[in-house]
Design brief:
This protein has about 180 residues and is an alpha+beta fold. Helix content is about 35%, strand content about 30%. It is globular.
Length: about 180
């Protein structure tokens, strides 16, 4: 049973989907996977798992497609820059490389921002494409292994509190949530 409000209801959802279809009648890629779950070992002692929103193919290369939504106003360009450097996106690319190995060219990731105001106002859609940087992938893996080793050595882990935020505050939000 879903609670509906003046601004959160099936009619508005249908209007947003219709607006999306009007603005993007065709997208230049083929969807290869949706809600693609994965699990693999970073090291013999560290298991890494999660879900990719989608894997798409564009001009012969695979891309991670990641949807970000927000009800508050934000600057698309600033949000793009924040996510471009995030451990989440680098981890997703590392995962893409692990899942598809060298059998397919890897392009990078596409972040698709959707601003849906909690009250009246237009919905805004903005995709950003970020090419793969192989050096960042290895740095992400090394940094992640070091951080987890530090947690283990101290026997302390990040604290999942009401102050934690899913949106860019901490690179290890999901790990904390799993420990909560």
């Amino acid at each position: 049973n879903v609670v509906q409000t003046k601004w959160q209801n099936l009619g508005r959802a249908k209007a947003i989907i219709s607006q999306f279809n009007d603005e993007f009648p065709t997208l230049p890629f083929t969807v290869r996977a949706v809600e693609r779950e994965w699990e693999f070992d970073l090291t013999p002692d560290i298991r890494y798992s999660g879900t990719l929103d989608a894997v798409v193919e564009d001009q012969g290369a695979l891309w991670v497609w990641d949807v970000k939504t927000s009800s508050s106003q934000f600057d698309f360009q600033k949000e793009h820059l924040k996510w471009a450097a995030s451990a989440q996106q680098q981890g997703y690319l590392y995962t893409l490389r692990e899942l598809y190995h060298a059998s397919t060219k890897l392009g990078g990731y596409i972040i698709f921002h959707i601003h849906v105001p909690s009250g009246p106002g237009p919905v805004k859609f903005q995709p950003f494409q970020n090419p793969l940087d192989p050096v960042l992938l290895e740095r992400w893996r090394e940094r992640t292994i070091v951080v987890i080793a530090e947690w283990e050595a101290r026997r302390t882990y990040p604290h999942y509190t009401s102050m934690c935020s899913l949106y860019g505050t901490c690179d290890f939000y999901d790990a904390c949530r799993a420990l909560a």
